[in-house]
Design goal:
The chain is an alpha+beta fold. The chain has 2 helices and 3 strands. The protein has a domain of about 60 residues: Rubrerythrin, domain 2, CATH 2.20.28. It is about 35% helix and about 15% strand. The protein starts with a strand and ends with a helix.
């Protein structure tokens, strides 16, 4: 059950109430014994997702986990091929 914050405009006191989604109406102020005018306060959410990784990590497809590994292998192979080409050219100039 969610926890809601309320503010009494009569006695200027804030209070929290744990209520169900199906509850209707506004709860009575515990300081004024129900005579005060109560309004619900809106506050920031309890969870804030920061950083660049949340959306990318959560929205990948089934085969995308294998794709970065394949790309890394292809890059490693290219760098090995370039390294072997340079060694061939250096030995052929003697």
């Amino acid at each position: 059950m969610p926890l809601y914050e309320y503010y009494c405009e009569t006695c200027h006191q804030g209070f929290e109430v744990r209520r169900s989604f199906s509850d209707e109406g506004v709860p009575a102020c515990p300081n004024c014994n129900g005579t005060g005018r109560v309004r619900r306060k809106f506050s920031v959410p309890a969870i804030v997702f920061k950083g660049a990784g949340f959306y990318v990590n959560d929205s990948r497809g089934k085969n995308s986990a294998a794709k970065p590994a394949k790309e890394a292998q292809a890059k490693a192979k290219e760098s090995q091929d370039k390294g072997s080409d340079s060694s061939k050219s250096s030995t052929g100039s003697d």
